[in-house]
Design goal:
Length: 307
Amino acid sequence: MRANHSRNIRVNRDAFFGVAFALLAAIGFSAKAILVKLAYLDSPDAITLLALRMVFSVPFFIGIALWIRHQHAQPLSMHDRLLVLGLGLLGYYLSSFLDFLGLQYISAGLERLILFLYPTMTVILSALVYKRAIGRQTVAAMMLCYAGIVLVFLHNAEVKQDGIFLGAALVFASTLSYSVYLVGAGHAIARIGTTRFTAYAMMVASAASLLQFLAMRPLSALDLPVHVYQMAIAMALFSTVLPAFLLSYAIRRIGSGSASLIGSVGPVATIYMAYVFLNEDISLLQIIGSSLVLGGVLIISMSSERG
């Protein structure tokens, strides 16, 4: 009896911390859009801001890579190195760059909802690549998602924002890039390991961001207000490094399905943080649209878990 009681306490503790870590990770990832918009108040460009974010986050991933190497991990084959290079450029560098560009034109709330469409794109891409049929329930859920995006888009078009079409297109391209990465990364991650793959891919993305900055901007572009550096450091710590680790810990305790469902609070968190920190409006149209997107993604996520 005592052994069963101790086991139940351990299970409940793991579940509690798993949910807490997943929730904190979702909020951390969602805060990135808020921090980017706050940094843009001092008019840095997307190339410089992305480079700063990567400069402050990459030391942590280099440390992880060295630690894994110290654990006598098997060296990567040439095939795996090319996969890390290609997927790192596609999934972390290109996706982040397009997202930063898009945030110059659209609200943080709309950006997060468009990014949250990645499960629908992953389903479509997987169906095309692996010849998988898409069920009627999943099709209906995807229609809910995109109907919700249209409503939130209409809200943003009514409120303001020159360049809203360009911004939405850039963030949509960012989401597509990340979805292609997810479809292609599955087998690579299974062979290389999640932590190792993430560390190496982030190092590739950081190098690409820094090279882009050095090629396209003078060093004088770094002469920015302290506020921009504060936002970049906050992005690196609270919206890049810490959420990545927290999500890994959450998945270990409660599983990827439960962690993904908890992550659904992300867009809602972004909308309310944008209201508090950026004075972005919240309308009935936006609430309805957000609910449709969240509902559709939840249906797709639960269908994937059952499959």
